[in-house]
Amino acid sequence: MPRSVNTVASRQRRKKILKETRGYFGRRKNVWTVAKNAYEKGLEYAYRDRRTKKRNFRALWIQRINAGVRPYGMSYSEFIGKVNKKGILLNRKVLADLAMNHPDAFEAVIKAVK
Q: DSSP assignment of 44-102, as one string?
């Protein structure tokens, strides 16, 4: 009995991945095995970095808050400790935005904490 291969499905599968890798550099865009590896690796990086992005933003917010409270003679850790003790329910994202874009509002928060 002759061997049956589903060429239509195989070609569809390859076309789908080659379509996703369009725009990659060199053989990553048109050689099937290289493109498949590059595509899978890209998905792994995307999955990993969706989580890393959250860490990076939290670190950025902390740096901005720290830079905002230094002129008032406080450190970041002092400030966050006092904010939590006072029961102010502003998260780091909002505090960082206030420190950067609304210094008057941020100063009011610092005064409420002191």
A: HHHHHHHHHHHHHHHHHHHHHHHHHHGGGT--HHHHHHHHHHHT----HHHHHHHHHH-
How far is C-alpha 91 from the chain's CA centre? 17
* All domains in the chain, ordered by first residue: 8-113 (1.10.1900.20)
Contacts of 40 (CB under 8 A, 6+ apart): none
Task: Tell me the per-residue pLDDT of 27-54, one tens digit each, with 9 for 90 and over.
Answer: 999 999 999 999 999 999 999 999 999 9
Which residues neighbour 105 within 8 Å (Cβ) at sequence distance 6 or greater? 98
- pTM of the entire predicted model: 0.79
